[in-house]
Each structure stands twice: as structure tokens, then as C-alpha cells.
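Our collaborator T.R. sent over the components below with a one-line note: 'Predict the complex.' Nothing else. No constraints on interfaces, no templates requested, no preferences about which chain binds where. So this is a plain run: every listed entity goes in together, and whatever single assembly comes back becomes the starting point for the next discussion.
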Amino acid sequence: MSTQSILGLFQQPEPAADAMDGLKEAGFELGTFDVLTGTPYPEGAFGEHVPQHRLFRYPAFGAIIGFTLSIFLTSVTQLAYPMVTGGKPILSLFAMLIIMYEMTMLSGVIATVVGIVIESRLPNMKPGIYDTRITEGWIGVVVTFDDDSKVADAEGVLNRAGALEIKHA
Amino acid sequence: MASETVAAGHEATDHHAPPPQVAAEVIARELVATTIGASGRFKAWAWILGALSIAGIVALILKFIDQGDDSTKWGYVAAMVSFLLSVAGGAPMVSMAPVVAKANWVRPVTRIASIFSFAGIATVIMLIPLVAILPPLVTEGARRRTVWYIAPDYSPHFWTTLGLVLLLLTGIMLFYSAALPDFASMRDHSTGWRQRLGKRLARGWVGTDVQWRTLRMRIGMFGTFYFLILVFVNFLISTDFGQSLVPGWRDAIFPMYHTVSGFQAGVAAVVIALYFSRKYMKLEKYVHLDAFWSLGRLLFALTLLWIYFFYSSFIVFWYGRSANDIATLELLIKGPMIYAFIGGLVLMWFVPWWILIWNKVRRGTGAMVVGSFIILIGLLLDRIRTFVPAWSVPPERIHEKWLTVIPDTYWPTVFDVLIIVGGISMVAVIVMLMTRVIPVLSVWQVQEFNLLAKPIKYIKGHATLVAKPD
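Returned assembly:
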């Protein structure tokens, strides 16, 4: 059974939101339909499913790793080559802060880049059905299904909502 | 459309006039078109600035070959590193800070501000010879006073370079994070190599809800990282490449002074870039007077902050009157660079303050751009009066308790002049070339601006209704 998708194109946001409601009412599962826009509409503007994300965990995790490594690096090097300066303790926090800060930032940034690649689903090797008019302000409602029998139902919902065009892939 | 009429009638004279509404497809088409077909004047300037940039790099190499063993001759290069860090590092803050505060006026400005991240390449190039010349922490068996305490001898060299490279990469990531939807627009509406580049860099962007949500978050995250790293790099450059080279110069305010004046220069650079792109790319309907009005207020506040930080720093030395306080004031203010100091004071604070204080000026564009140019000249003089005397101190005197002999004024050589001109040209040409790669205004943010702001008639007047979703 092959995966199919159809894309309904709308010029105004209201009918696109109606199409999203219609798909929900017609029994399509959350996650099988989505809205494509060229502009970031406020979250929930189309009544779309808002999935959970874990993006905030990546920088936090990276920063903790970098912070821990920096404590290890600065402590071990100072203990390995103990040298009292100005009567201060061998492990002086203020002398270690600069390297701790920079390594925390470095690891945080690297982990954020990794997190973005994973959480944004980018690169999207199979972008699927699409229309270039979406970046001109049109709104696309894409429906994906494994069951061919539902194609007609989805088309009906999109047409009733006022789709100006329906594309198949 | 009634709102268009309302907007058109007021835009020319009133900075509070509702901006005209433009259809999304017109925005995409017109802004993508700005990347194509540079004018003859644009090309001529790009060639001139490019040639000056190359001349600057050649001068830097020749100077390193000729004077690489004498650190006292490198003050102007250090001043340029500081100047470029301030301009190229400070400008992208405009693309982040007001966005976090959900300011609507900033949406058309963010792209041009974040493009300055690429100009950080010029800062890194200038830093390379300086890192090779900066004395290690321990020379002739003695350790000079630095923030590095007992760290390995080449800690400033390594960590400052890493910090600056990290700032460059974070700035580019901040730019790229916000540019993904526009690369998709390039893929959809451009032609030739720009379309191919857009396709490659859009990474399959189609504008799903998840993609937009993560886009917002990564702009916030990279913006936060950028700010934290920028402050840190300003701290390292101002202490390791400035204060630590002058015996007795102990000033806790100087790193913050350096950072704040960098923000001031960054805003000034954005105003200049915005003015020229608005004027010569015919972007008046996308860059409204409201953006200049808001940037003007920001610039005015930062100009006042400059004098606050300078005075806070100065008064400690002036009241202190210990031998090292007197020597530090003599070196940095009264002595070899007094003319640069006076020039910096006048051009960074007094003149811009007197220009920007007037509401009429901030409501326009012409005087704003003049004020911004004056600030950048003032910043250059200020960096020269700080870093040139600091680097003029001979390495053999670096361990003294305070400076007993004030070095003479070190005037720029031909190499120094070429390096300064080349460094500034490099920033300008990088920004110009980037406008050929991606629209100078963010397509999706201009569309979002129109989506969230509607001109309305309010009682007997006119206003802009702005939606601010959480």
C-alpha cells in the first residue's frame, strides 16, 4: 500500500481553517493532515494539531556537558600543575570562570544546532506535495493517507471548504 | 482598499502613519527581485570597496612581514579589531533584542541587521596577526596582570580566537535560522544560481506548523547565545588586547563601556545600511518611517549611555589621583591621543546627542543617517585613542606597577591607513554582496508585518492595530 497525499490550496486563511475542522470532523487522525504557509500565522490559527517538542532540552543538555567538561579541564590542569599565585587557592573559581563560560556556550551552541536539525525535520529529503504559491501567501492543507478509499472523502472536505485547487501526489 | 488610501495619505509626512498593506505575492516577487540586476553604481562601488579590501589585506600581510616583531606598531590594527567587532558584532543585536520584545516595527529591519554577522569575517582576518603578536602572559620570567591569573601562557590567544570564531558562527546560524523561509522563496520565485542556492539552503522547507514553531524557537535560542557570546568577546578583547598591556590600567567599567559603545555603533550601522537599501532599492513601502523613528530612539538612548559609562570610568581615575591613576589618564586621555579623545567625545556623544535630541530629526531619514555616520567616525577615533596608546607601551615595561614613561603619539603609517580603509571597506562590501544572495528585507517577516498590523480609523484619527500573539 503506497502513501498518497493531496494538497488543497486556499487564498484566504478562513476557508483553510474550515478545511482543517472538516478533516477532523470527517475522522482523519491528527498528524495525517497539516497546514502549509509562507508566513508564520499565530499558533492555533488554523486549529491545527500542536505537537510537543523537545528543542529546549538540547541547549540545556549541551550547556551541562560543556560546563562539566570545563570544570574537569580547569580543575585537572591546575591540580596537575599546582602553582600558588598571589596566595590564592590552587582551585580558584574566578580564574576558572572564563573557560567555564566559554565552554558552556560552545557546547550549548553545538547542541542547539544538532537539536534544530533533528526537531525541525530538516533537511527534509522528501518534502512531498507542495506549491510555489504558498510562499506568495496562499495556504495549503495537505492530507496524507495510506488508504486510497479516503482520498475522495478528503477531496470532498477540501472542496466544501472552498479549495481553489487540489493537487495529487 | 480603504486602508491603503489611509496609509498612502499619511506615510509621507507622519512617522506614525499606518504602513500601507501590500499583498503577500507582491512582497515575495518584489523582494526576491531586489537580489537580481545590480545597478552600474552598485557594481562600481562593489569593485572599489573590494579592491580596497584586498589592499587592506595585502597591507596587513606586509606589515606583519615588516613589523611582526614589534608589538608597539600594532595599535591601529588592534583598534580596527575592536572597531569591527563593535560594528559587525553589535548590528545583529538589532535583529534579536526587539524581536524578543515582539516589536512589530523591527520585522523589516532584522535581515539587514543579521547580514552584518558575515562581516565578522573581517574582524577574524584582522585578529590573526594580532594574536601572533600579542605577548604571552609570562615574559622574561614575569607574569603580567590579566584576567587569566595562573592560566597557561597563551590562554588569551586561544580563548579569544575561539570566542570570536564562535561569535561569527553563532551570528551566521542566527542569520540562517531566520533566512530558511526566504531561501524557500528564492527556490520558488528566483532563477539561475540563486534558485539552485535557495533550493540547497532551504533544506526542504515547506512551511509546516512544526517548521514555523521551531524557527521561532531557534531565533530566540541563537539570539540569546549571540548576546551572551558578544558580551563575553567584548570582555576578552577589551581586557586582553587593551587593559592588560598597560601596567596599572585597572578599570572594571571599561569592558562594559566597550560593549555598550559597540551596541551604539551596531545600531548606527543598521541605520546607514537601512537608509541606503531603502533609497536605492526603492523599498519605501516596506521600510517605514516608523522603523527609523524607533531606531532613532534606541540610538539616542545608547548615545546617552556612552557618556554615562565614560564618565563613570573617568571619575574613578580622576578622583583617585594615585600614581597609576594619573598615568592611566595621561596615557588614554590627556597624553598622546588627546586629539583622538576630543574627536571621539564630540562625535560619539555631543554631536549625535544634539542631532538626535530633536523629534523632527528622528522622524526623518536624512539627519538620522548623518548622525549615524558621525557616531561611527567617533567610535573609530575612540578605539584609536584607547588601543593605540595601549599597544604603544613597550613589552619591557609591561610588568611595571604603573606606567612611568608615557609613550609618544604613534601616528598611522601608510600600512595602517590601508588596513583601516580596507577593514571598513570589507564590512561594506560583504554586506553589499549579501544583498545579491538573499533579499535585503526578510520576505516572510515583511509578510508577517502585514499579517499582524492593520491600518484602522480610530475615532477621528488613524492608527495601526497590531496583533501580538503569544
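Summary for T.R.: Residues 4-50+126-168 of chain A form a domain with the Alpha-Beta Plaits fold (CATH 3.30.70.2750).
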